[in-house]
Amino acid sequence: MIRFHDALELARGFATEHLSGFGAVYLIRDLVGRVSIALNVPGGDLEEREALSKRLHDDLGAFGPGPSEAVQTRDDLLLPEEIFDSGEAICLQEEPVAVYLVDRLMGNQDWLRRPLAHQAPLPTAVAFSLKGGVGRSTAFAAWAHHLAGLGYKVLAMDLDLEAPGLQSLLLRQDDQNPRRDRRPDYGVVDWLVEGRVDQADAALLEEMLGGVDLPRGTPGEIQVVPAFGKETRDYVAKLGRAYLPVMGPDGAERGFAEAVMELLTAGKERVEPFDVALLDARAGMHDIGAAAVTRLGAHAFLFARDDAQTWTAYEHLFEHLRWSPAVEYGMPDHDLRWRLSMVGAMAGGTERDFEELRGRSYAAWQWLYDEEPEGAVSPGTPEETDQEMPHWPIPVDEVQELRGASFQDPERAPSPSVLERAYRNFWGIAGSRLLGSAGSDG
Description:
Layout: H1 4-18, E1 25-29, E2 35-39, H2 49-60, E3 71-73, H3 81-84, E4 90-93, E5 99-103, E6 124-129, H4 136-149, E7 153-158, H5 166-170, H6 188-195, H7 202-206, E8 210-211, E9 221-225, H8 235-239, E10 246-247, E11 253-254, H9 256-268, E12 276-280, H10 287-294, E13 299-304, H11 308-321, E14 340-347, H12 351-365, E15 394-397, H13 416-435
Parallel strand pairs: 1-5, 2-3, 6-12, 6-13, 7-9, 7-12, 13-14, 14-15
Antiparallel strand pairs: 1-2, 4-5, 8-9, 10-11
């Protein structure tokens, strides 16, 4: 019995053995996992097409697309340019014949799409995790306050649309006293749906910004864009359209990633522009995380607790992410991996705890680091103890006083000593990776 994960490898082997004389080979995997092969040659060039197609279909079992559809030429395809001119094709191998994959997915396509930019419009950090409850939102709320204390104008954005957390940590809500209520009228979900009809603009952004109360004398500021605001209506109906891609005036697709990029650009182009943006993404392998981590030119901080479920999940993600066009052999400066940093969430605090965390992180990252040619020693292969590599986890120590913490009210926020115990390493390392030496002042 051929399983889903067998079908692609079977088709790749079939293409290498039987079709290597026809130029690049394109594997097409449809929404249910059926695999076919397309060749960019006229129909007359492949005289054995019908026989080869039936053979591949039979070999693929339940994942065969049909006896006549398993192998097709350019003349057999309704829209051949969608295959051969697709910017979404993933290179699976280059020798002995180039093999590309065009994968039809219902969601999570952004993991393997090209970044919209190598650098976001302003320095942007993303908090990402594969599981909830790792202190991701709390860490970014505390970091926002720390950066404001250094004089930065911080834009904090809650992208966890299904279960917002950052906004509730930072924005005071007071239904009984509107003058004390810091929530804005609208939020991210409003920007997404209004943008589909070209009504997301600078004026809307100003109605999406909620100011955070800070200790007297703080030189910087924090403005929050929540998932939703006080005047947001029909939230579930809007949420059902939040990830819908549309065609822009130029004919290019505009989806979730493009909308968030436009929001960051608007934050940079304000009369009083923001210096830095902190984005809290949804936990899990969701479209939000895919877009925020890989497409915005942001630096993504991957939060992980040291347990088997977490590392297994990251291994699955890294195994998939290694096919990204933003991952290049040799890790050049613009490579996606330089914009990823592991964070050891709720670490135990001892040297032994950290060594175990580091070892498991390094093991998971083997899926994403370059494979060395057999018999060669690559100088670019990282050592486990190399602190500059993305697998090296930035420790965030578990501090009991932070459970249930809120940053809405300066008088009730965690004390500086508590925050220092938890985030002293994170602030310095994360700040330097996002903002250079100026951001590491702790």
